Amino acid sequence: MKFFGALLLSTLAVAALGQGDLPGPEFSARDLQRIASLSPLGPVPGDETNRFALDPRAALLGQRLFFEPGLSANGKTACATCHDPEQSFGDGLPRAVALAEGPRRTPSLWNLAYARWYFYDGRADSLWAQALQPMENEIEMGSDRLAILRAVQSRPLLRSEFEALRGALPELSDSERFPEHARPRPDAPGSAEAVAWLAMAPEDREAVNRAFADLGKMLAAYERLLVSRDSAFDRFAEGLREDDAEKKAALSVDAQRGLKLFLGKGRCRLCHNGPNFSDGEFHGLGLAPPGGGMPTDAGRYNGLPALLADPFNARGAYSDAPAGVRARILKGLRRSTSNWGEFKTPSLREVSRRGPFMHAGQFATLEVVLEFYSTLEGAAALHQHQEQILAPRNFSAGERADLLAFLESLEGAPLPATLLKAP
Amino acid sequence: MKTFLGGLTVVCLALFVWAGPDAANGGEDPLVKTLLSNDGTYRLTLEFSGAELVVRDLFEVGVRMERSDGGKADLQLAFDARMPEHGHGMNREAEVSSEGGGTFAVSNLLLHMPGLWELYFDVTEGAICERAQFSIDLD
Predict the structure, then answer these.
(1) Which band of pLDDT confidence, cut at 50, 70 and 90, is reported for residue A114?
(2) What's CA A266's distance to the chain center, in Å?
(3) Which of B91, B95, B108 sits opposite A282 (nearest CB)?
(4) Which of A30, A33, A388 is facing B86, going by the closest CB pair?
(5) Domain, as residue range, for B45
(6) How many angstroms separate the CA atoms of A423 and A61, rounded?
(7) Which of A210, A218, A208 is nearest to A66 (CA)?
(8) CATH number of the domain residue B7 falls in
(9) If you average pLDDT over residues B13-38, what whole number do you get?
């Protein structure tokens, strides 16, 4: 009887403490090893395909270009319009809206220097090749490489910095050789832009492509600086390494329990692994599109052939290492039906500062994301190769709150204010 | 139950054998491992590009193959790595190139997720094909 009395008292005591006052979890030796694999985030890796990647002058010009609306067709849309520094380099919308609404969410730009593939479907294999596509996408910035280079040429500061870094622009004033608007359009070979492009001399097309690629490389040099590190979780991990109680206290007890779930029951780390909290690869969750129904976005299935056909990929003529490691990786890529509906694993650093979530903004908040992984309600079976280990995690409300606290602990130290606006 | 425990023992032994040379090389020299094909006809010596296999790191394997009985043979190699619990393998195809004399270089390898991986080395001699394999649990 005394036992039941003590049990009742302890139950009441725990209830009175509230979730946040529950004791912290015990971390096993294996947990500690796994935590060590998640932090710290190492130095920003180089990019052998981009000779400007580490050049601060290129990064400064890239920053100017990032905030320059004059590169767009309507003269009002810059990279920063959708990738707004005030909104964690996103736009807070379920689907991107620039010149028109797109089919996918605007991805955040945090820690892209650590990525292996770009876009949700991996159709670019370098940050610079990625940066080129939105500028010519009709529903994003809607311009073309001739008009973009002219916009640079007509702005004295941009032109002088650009030419100081990479040499003179092509003779764009010669309208016989360089039409006002032109770009390759495999999707619309009969369009005026495509016809104008094919009418250009091969060496002029080559010169335009090379300058356009260099522009992307300078944009990438800036974007590589957008790094999130030194989060509360990183301080906790450092405290574990150094057995420093003060640093260990950086992570709340709630977040510590969330971390334990992240490493164990949640199986989150199977895909969100490594110091950037992403395996950098592609997985299919069978998410229904906005509005419901079966998945309609092919994701990696279409991204892979687009990458292999991209003249700006790592093995292409405009890469600065066409026989390098990244180029060799492309040789091993094969499209498979199992790629259908796969999307790139996003980094979780800064995840609580951005949203909506998933590739088409299906979930408004992180709470809804955690509910999805808890039940997998609404997920479609894509094919026999879908992640067989993806099973409902059956999180309790308290566990979801703890996981949320852990995800919030991945907010890093602020970037220098000078990086968040046009220089 | 007996089968399960037997299987578990095999996996544990494989992991134990794997851990041996890794610990022995002090984490510096390339990891070297020898394997027999499943029917015992071929012996493979594997030399990895790093001291250990790590999730998300590109790596290569040098493979020297020979008949266990010492006889001469014209051998070919194919490679794959799979995650049996996940139902998938790598997100890329390995590049296998012959360097002559039964030696091959296997490159473009990346194990992108933690968990149990099976590495398959399929040795072909004319109409005969034998598999050599081992398991590794990456964490």
Answers:
(1) very high
(2) 23
(3) B91
(4) A388
(5) 2-138
(6) 9
(7) A218
(8) 2.60.40.1930
(9) 60
* Domains defined for chain A, CATH in brackets: 18-41+229-299+347-420 (1.10.760.10), 56-223 (1.10.760.10)
Hey, is B99 helix, strand or coil?
strand
Output the pLDDT for position B29: 79
Q: pTM of the predicted model, to two decimals?
A: 0.87
Find the residue in A nearest to B111 (Cα): A279
Give the closest-approach CA distance of A314 to chain B in angstroms.
Answer: 15
* Residue A128 tokens, joined: 């610079």
Question: Residue B56 and residue A274: Cβ atoms within 8 Å?
Answer: yes
d(CA A135, CA A142) in angstroms, rounded, equals 6
Range 2-31 of A in CB contact (< 8 A) with B: 30
How far off is chain B from A212, nearest CA to CA, in Å?
A: 30
Q: Determine the Cα–Cα distance for residues A179 and A289; give it in Å rounded to an integer.
A: 40
Q: How many CB pairs under 8 A join A and B?
A: 58
Give chain B's length. 139
**pLDDT tens for residues A195-247?**
999 999 999 999 999 999 999 999 999 999 999 999 999 999 999 999 999 99
Q: Which residues of B touch A271 (CB under 8 A)?
A: 113
Interface predicted TM-score (ipTM): 0.77
Nearest to B88 among A328, A332, A385 (CB): A385
Q: Measure CB to CB from residue A281 to each of B91, B93, B115 and give the nearest one.
A: B91
Chain B residue numbers with beta carbons less than 8 Å from the beta carbon of A30 are 139
Two structure tokens written together for A107: 């991805």
Whether the pLDDT of residue A185 is over 60: the answer is: yes
Give Cβ neighbours of residue A340 (< 8 Å, ≥ 6 apart). Answer: A284, A298, A299, A300, A301, A382, A383
Query: What is the number of domains present in chain B?
Result: 1
